[in-house]
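User: Here's a chain of 170 residues. Predict its fold as tokens.
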Amino acid sequence: MEILKLTTDWAKAELVSTSFFIVIGIAFVLASFGFWQFGKTDLTRAYIIPMLVAGIFLITVGLGLFFTNKARITKFETAYNDDISTFVASELERSEATLKEYKTIVFTAIPFIIVACGLVIFLVNTPIWRASMISTIAMLAVILLIDGLAHARIEAYYKELKKAEIVKEK
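Assistant: Prediction complete.
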């Protein structure tokens, strides 16, 4: 039962984490609205669409992850009760794959994209490009922050599952 509690606690923490995507996405949409209402300069007005797109993207990602993890919580107990060793093996496999994805996407691709956006800001001086690149960097920084915390959480979860697997084998 400890493994089931560990798994559901991890999934519940993910629900809280993904809620931040939604909250920050709403903040981006509100910022876009603010730029639309109060923007006087070309650069300020250029932020309207990029911030709106980034906000909608963050909200969509947050909602998708939230509902996926929420549905997963109810399935955990059924899978655990069916066969504990199969449940642990499948969770180990899933969390290991997720850790590899984090390494590739979050800790390699996102920093690379941030650097590329920084170069575009340096090389291109039109308001829409600057606003788009700065909005992209801000959105990616949010993703990097939230996913960095999620990575630490799933890494700890994976280590606990490994311990549980070793205990089961003995």
